[in-house]
Amino acid sequence: xxxxxxxxxxxxxxxxxxxxxxxxxxxxxxxxxxxxxxxxxxxxxxxxxxxxxxxxxxxxxxxxxxxxxxxxxxxxxxxxxxxxxxxxxxxxxxxxxxxxxxxxxxxxxxxxxxxxxxxxxxxxxxxxxxxxxxxxxxxxxxxxxxxxxxxxxxxxxxxxxxxxxxxxxxxxxxxxxxxxxxxxxxxxxxxxxxxxxxxxxxxxxxxxxxxxxxxxxxxxxxxxxxxxxxxxxxxxxxxxxxxxxxxxxxxxxxxxxxxxxxxxxxxxxxxxxxxxxxxxxxxxxxxxxxxxxxxxxxxxxxxxxxxxxxxxxxxxxxxx
Length: 320
Known about the structure:
Low-confidence stretches: none
CATH superfamily of the domain at 1-122: Intraflagellar transport protein 81, N-terminal domain
Pfam families: IFT81_CH (PF18383)
Protein name: Intraflagellar transport protein 81 homolog
Keywords: Acetylation, Cell projection, Cilium, Cilium biogenesis/degradation, Coiled coil, Cytoplasm, Cytoskeleton, Differentiation, Phosphoprotein, Spermatogenesis
CATH architecture of the domain at 1-122: Orthogonal Bundle
Distance between the termini: 96 Å
Structural class: mainly alpha
Number of helices: 12
Order of helices and strands: HHHHHHHHHHHH
Mean pLDDT: 84
Oligomer: single chain
InterPro entries: IFT81 (IPR029600), IFT81_CH (IPR041146), IFT81_N_sf (IPR043016)
Family: Belongs to the IFT81 family.
Number of strands: 0
Strand content: under 5%
Largest sheet: none
């Protein structure tokens, strides 16, 4: 217990609490003062907990603290009976209840800050099913769930960026290095300009160099245009082939569209349909009727018992 109190006092004396306690003064705190210390630590984790507990009912204080501790996933020691004791201890500011909570909170303050922040957006509001029957409520609830998923994705990306190794200091160093390289290049260009100016007819030579650069850029542009036109020609040839095949198919269909061909095809269809109606379908219908009659006969007969089966087996044996 003494190590626990020492840890609590050391952390309360640091930023951001600056309580200036020692072991004696901290252990001498009144229950209401101890509850306020606990509330101050909770307020550092979740700013919504900033409250003067003297202006709050004890039951309301306990309910608020229990709610946040549940979100932070604090597990009091013991069973359900001890939970009642834990709640009562919060109400009265009991040291055996408060000290372990303070110790647990101060061990992982930064982690709990993140957990409390995420809880504001990720604890789902359960809407009763009867309210979801309303179309407006259902649409709003769907948007709410989509926004929650979007927040999860964005927060995950943000955390990945934070741990990716990039920092503002490194970026500033890179920018400074590039600025230095830029200055060096500018100085180098100035030196080359001065060196070129000493050459005879340097203006004409610079003009020719600029023209050469322009022509090279034009050559690259024309080569790119040539490749694009080749691609367009290839696609045009493919389209032409498809159209020619369609035209060929249409011509064959038109050739088959003569009156004689149409009459012949119609006669064949009539013969086929007549065969189906007068021969095939009646036969199939008759077979189905026979099957139905047989099944109805089987269903109408009484079920065979064990003695009937023995009798049949004896008859089969006699026949053999």
